[in-house]
Amino acid sequence: MDKIIISCAVTGSIHTPSMSPHLPVTAEDIADQAVAAAEAGAAVLHLHARNPADGRPSQDPALFAAFLPAIRDRSDAIINITTGGGLGMSLDERLAPAKWAAPEIASLNMGSLNFNISGAAARVPQFRHDWERPYLEMTRDFILSNTFAQIERGLTELGALGTRFEYECYDVGHLYNLAHFVDRGLVQPPFFVQAIFGILGGIGADHANLMHMKATADRLFGRDYRLSVLAAGRHQMPFVTMGAILGANVRVGLEDSLYISRGRLATSNAEQVAKIRRILDELSLDVATPDEAREMLQTKGAGNVAF
């Protein structure tokens, strides 16, 4: 079995500042938490940016420029920049930071879906910022758009920069969408497939679904792909542990869950990374270093980015 790649999704665009005081918002906080996660064992850092004034998700390349060099200088982790951005953004906005930074990896959603996180609003007793409640509640009537034309544009524009992809698959059909682009010769192996469970509108966080997603990916991609697993909220640790047992890579981080255990908020991304690292150690599963992950995913290397 290959070594396990730990990815850490540091802040994301789903959780809002009122949900946890530990969610990083400023450039300094994002950089510090990213570096600490790398020190705890994360080989890949999946990064979003936020407006430091109110924590609103932003794809302004200038905000990424405020923390990417610091992370690069203080760690050797692979930097993975989102193209999902924040909910409701245009494709131009979503692609802008990755086109500016030309990272080793960028995330790429592999299909449109209903993306409903409105239920989170009812669990927050008081919001600190006016944008938070409407941002969550609007998702009752929201489609996260990732058409074939949009996906192709991401593949071609970022692929021309030498960037490889974390193919985010929220349902079984998204695996077939990826296979479509493989058949057309627009993407080359190894495919880093991130199977995502537990978002309302995507595939549910049932263990049988993980087995089904893996079996489907095995059938479609054979030995040409690397599976990674993440699950939202309370499903995070059990699901990624099961994925690792099955030979998959794992993703944790405050983008995916704000908690470290039942009822207890994680104080940092590094705390979650350290926990999954302990679990993997107990299972006698070896964790990949950043350079080992680069070899496994065949990225262009940290010296070939634009920041």
From TrEMBL:
<dbReference type="InterPro" id="IPR008567">
    <property type="entry name" value="BKACE"/>
</dbReference>
<dbReference type="InterPro" id="IPR013785">
    <property type="entry name" value="Aldolase_TIM"/>
</dbReference>
<dbReference type="Pfam" id="PF05853">
    <property type="entry name" value="BKACE"/>
</dbReference>
<keyword id="KW-0479">Metal-binding</keyword>
<keyword id="KW-0862">Zinc</keyword>
<dbReference type="GO" id="GO:0043720">
    <property type="term" value="F:3-keto-5-aminohexanoate cleavage activity"/>
</dbReference>
<protein>
    <recommendedName>
        <fullName>3-keto-5-aminohexanoate cleavage protein</fullName>
    </recommendedName>
</protein>
<dbReference type="GO" id="GO:0046872">
    <property type="term" value="F:metal ion binding"/>
</dbReference>
<keyword id="KW-0614">Plasmid</keyword>
<keyword id="KW-0808">Transferase</keyword>
